[in-house]
Amino acid sequence: MGIKSRGDKKLFVLDTNVLMHDPTAIFRFAEHDIFLPMVVLEELDRAKKGTSEVARNSRQVSRFLDELMKSASKRDIDAGLPLPTTAKQLESGATDADCGHLFFQTQLQPKELPHTLPGNTPDNNILGTALALADMAPHRHVTLVSKDINLRIKAAVIGIHTEDYHNDQVLDDVNLLYSGESELPADFWDTHSKDIDSWKEEGHTYYRVKGPDTAKWYINQCLYMEGEQPFEAIVRQLDGSDAVIELVNDYRSTKHAVWGISARNREQNFALNLLMDPNIDFVSLLGTAGTGKTLLALAAGLAQVLDQNRFREIIMTRVTVPVGEDIGFLPGTEEEKMTPWMGALMDNLEVLTQTEGGEWGRAATDDLLRSRIRIHSLNFMRGRTFLNKYIILDEAQNLTPKQMKTLITRAGPGTKIVCLGNVAQIDTPYLTETTSGLTYVVDRFKDWPHGGHITLLRGERSRLADYASEVL
Length: 472
Known about the structure:
The chain is of the alpha/beta class. It has three domains: 11-163, 3-Layer(aba) Sandwich (Rossmann fold); 175-247, Elongation Factor Tu (Ef-tu), domain 3, CATH 2.40.30; 277-471, P-loop containing nucleotide triphosphate hydrolases (Rossmann fold), CATH 3.40.50.300. Helix 9 (266-276) packs parallel to helix 10, helix 10 packs across helix 12 (343-352) and helix 14 packs across helix 15 (437-445). It has 16 helices and 18 strands. The chain has helices spanning 16-21, 38-47, 53-69, 74-79, 87-91, 122-136, 149-157, 188-192, 266-276, 293-307, 334-338, 343-352, 358-372, 401-408, 437-445, 463-471; strands at residues 11-14, 33-36, 81-82, 101-104, 142-145, 161-163, 181-183, 197-201, 204-210, 222-225, 231-239, 242-247, 282-287, 313-318, 373-377, 389-394, 416-421, 451-456. A six-stranded mixed sheet has the order 3-4-2-1-5-6. A six-stranded mixed sheet has the order 7-10-11-12-9-8, covered by helices on one side. A six-stranded parallel sheet has the order 15-14-16-17-13-18, with helices on both faces.
């Protein structure tokens, strides 16, 4: 058995960046076959050294390939190595012929490319191999899979069918992402008040409602109704068509301000309710620049660390991906190295420390806050466990799903994690709005009783910033 004798199964040629992005990609093509050009193995070998995510992924791919090739002879490799099938396929009695096979470039020579693509670059080598495969097995559907847009353009120009790698995509469209809030219809109380039950408990008002709309709700989803008597609540329990909702605290008034910060709109009020709730361990806030994500998270953290003693300290961290040119290696401790990346923290602390008492009072407040706020780099998070900490992860849209899992699994007892980000501003290569780790956790945590999410919509920075975001 070989490439030619595999019937009408599709044949996917994988680019190196697909494997570097997702080491499990070789197992993600169901019953179809995979072909790895030799230049891909060479690029994986060159990228394996170091402690970066790409280096780790490259080493993991090598381990997977080594596992597949154990006790395989040269004849087995030429015939294609059977890939482990999914649990469903195994349960249905799938045989080696039904599952996908992995082929390596053993004897196939890359076809000569048009003179418009000169040079022996790795990309051109992959293109030549894909062309030669299409010639060798004309009855098979050969597809080049790459996350490199330029390679996909070149492939399309010379007639090779090409696709992006979509298996790690959380959603088809980022507009389908869970927003964390839902507007109640105008006739909500008419259709849901038949068996309504209300009570007060520890200063909070609860309603038990039944009706058709409750089936669409998620736990800790924010509900609102506009009108003469605005209504704002959070879903606390769901049981079929039976739901318990709780009226939210109103943080808009200065009397209920959190560390001197009042909510300026409905979404900010919902955000403060989630951030201040001791029963919610994970909060994600999405929003464009100026919507107040960092300020609200810091204010809620300071109130719970210094006023309520709920947490020992605030840990602030973010991915160190520069927008422009990198500034290179910096001297000093971990906190000193992270300082240039923490401009957002310093800007917001200025707003939160506008105390009376002149210079001396401000200096004393700054010292107190800095003793309770730690700045850590994500690079040193592996193996750590955080106990009773309030962790703020800024710019979370630049994390991959795997990095996000690594970070969130650091949380020990009594720790709360707040993820902030804007999926429209991703700086990490090969990461998109639908594959970002932030999109991933928002989608995966929406059913968890101890997780909350809200998308902030209105910018509250200044009239200049609001106008600039609209017209520029």
